[in-house]
Amino acid sequence: MLGEANRDRRSERRTATRREIIDAAWVVAREKGLAEVTLRDVAGLVGMRPPSLYTHFASKHAIYDAMFGDAWTQYLVYAKTAEADEPRESRAALRFYARVFFDFAVDFPARHQLMNQRTIPGFTPSPDAYAPSVAVMQDFIARMARHGVRGQDDIDLFVAIVGGLVDAQLANDPGGTRWSGLLDRAIDMYADNVGITSERSRP
Hints:
The structure is a single chain. By secondary structure, the protein is an all-alpha fold. The protein folds into 2 domains: 1-57, CATH 1.10.10.60; 62-203, CATH 1.10.357.10. 66% of the residues lie in helices and 0% in strands. Helix 1 (9-32) packs across helix 2 (39-46), helix 4 (90-107) packs across helix 7 and helix 7 packs antiparallel against helix 8.
């Protein structure tokens, strides 16, 4: 078509193939576990020989790196979609923030492990892969500030409470509700501690 910008079809194909490889790695991680992702299994799912993966990723850690960035990008989208249901009241909003993250985490344990635990020996995310997690935290800090929670210790405590309950749920009652059922109670205790003592919004 006249006037249409030239397309870099080779780049588009490369991007699509990388996406397919990342998706295949998530399939293996869900079925076998994060640490059991192998180049052979990933290559098999995308119809490649394992050495061909090196055309797109320099190493298995490079695949993990792409998965790390993808996981936090998934959470950004998930949290953004949930915004429509966010309560205005402070205590309810804190319970909501906790629930959104908790449900996302327990839905896919291998993804949570990559995002929030040091499951893969020697793996450290690159700055590019880490950037979406920084964006998530910056957004979370801004939301907490709207309810009067601004201290770094208070932010850290909230993260520790929710993360601890996620880990307890996954370790001790996967697929159940034992620690999920404690989440609102724990956040109410937290809200009392930081001075949000009623359901009304904090001044």
